[in-house]
Amino acid sequence: MEIYSPLPIVIITAISIATAYLFKIFLPVQAFDSWRHEEIDGLRGFLAVFMFIHHSSVWYSYIKNGVWAVPSSAVYTNIGQIGIILFFMISSFLFFTKIRKSKVIDWKKLYISRIARLAPLFLFLFILVLIVVGFSTEWAPRVPFRDIIFSILSWLPFTLFGQKDINGLPDTFIIVAGVPWSLVFEWLLYASLPLLRVLLLKRVPFFYILLSLVLVFIITRSLSYSPKFVLLAFALGGASSYVADYEKIRNFSRKKVASFVSIGIFIYTACSYQGVYATEPIVLISTAFALICCGCGFFGILRFNAVKILGQVSYGIYMLHGVVLFVSFRFLFGFDFIGALSSTSYWVVVFSITPIVISISIFSFYFIESPVIKMADRAMKNNGLIK
What does the CA dihedral 273, 187, 237, 212 come to, rounded to 10 degrees? Predict the structure, then answer.
């Protein structure tokens, strides 16, 4: 089995769904937001698993040649990049729909709920990073204490100020596969919501307009990535909110031909571009995404309970898979052992890691993410912040 064979994608996806299926009896799927779409939940699950597969292929090259870079395979590059684009589109679609259709927005609740949703797992991940750094540097300071503190502070606001090396450990970001960078853009979207609602000619309290301006300024000034492709993804995700209003498109999207079209677009895009962070592929992706927003379920696959469980815990899969890969390769098996493996043996190792990634993500959702979300809701109600 070649390292860039399509077979590992199929096998890892199947293992992930099977692992989620084993949990579904004990941890039933639930949605915390009534405006969510089950097809989008299912899509999230696939995207998170594809990010895991993408970074698994990156790790193979990294261990072999010491360079952290996108795979030479278009498919293995694009299953990761398409996932990023679609995650941004999903967020934009859901939140733009909310500010567009809601008569009144409880901004305080919205922002507290976003912090409660994203912060606990991020902090858990960062604690794991510090532990891994400690073991990797033998718990001995390698740089001045001040530098350690500054590097830690750069990570804490959702890596707004970068993912700096901690305690002199080169390329510390590899511990998490660099994934927290996308959270900065998520917060850029959340920060811009009051301004977007003003553009829709809807009333927004002056305080939140001012807060939005300040946050957007701070975040854009701190960006280490070009925002152009992200802004395009946000714009097209928001446009899908309008597309979903058309009954004829919704009716078409529920037909089998729509599933053929959307899947065909994704396969074509994954195979035809060496990277999809460009206008043409993002527009193509948005076309398929709009169909999903209108009810296209990939022949019902996106509505499977096991797939929706993967969607429910997709944030955990996305955030934690990098740590699991790093710990497995660095401490459990060892870089020398992994580096000596054939491509087939390497994928067998990744197959064995897959249930661990999914299981940890499920447990983290039900024992870290979900309790904090519920606790935040209760706290806001008890303190009269929301009705």
Answer: -130
Pull the structure tokens for residue 65. Answer: 């040649």
The residue with tokens 């249930």 is 355
Q: Are 90 and 237 in contact (CB under 8 A)?
A: yes
* Gyration radius of the chain over CA positions: 21
Distance CA 220, CA 83 (A): 23
Indicate whether 20 pLDDT > 80.
Answer: yes
Residue 381's pLDDT is 76
Instruction: Residue 374: count other Cβ atoms within 10 Å of its Cβ.
Output: 12
CB 286 within 8 A of CB 240: yes
Neighbours of 170 (CB within 10 A): 8
- Residues with Cβ within 8 Å of 302's Cβ and at least 6 positions away in sequence, in order, are 38, 39, 41, 42, 43, 46, 292, 296, 308
Contact 17, 314 (CB under 8 A): no
Contact between 347 and 1 (Cβ < 8 Å): yes
pTM, two decimal places = 0.95
**What are the start-end ranges of the H helices in 174-300?**
181-199, 206-222, 228-243, 247-253, 256-272, 279-293
Number of Cβ within a 10 Å radius of residue 192: 21
CA 147 centroid distance within chain: 29
pLDDT digits (tens, 9 = 90+) for 195-218: 999 999 999 999 999 999 999 999
Give the C-alpha separation, 376 to 197, whole Å: 25
Quick count: other Cβ atoms within 10 Å of Cβ 27? 16
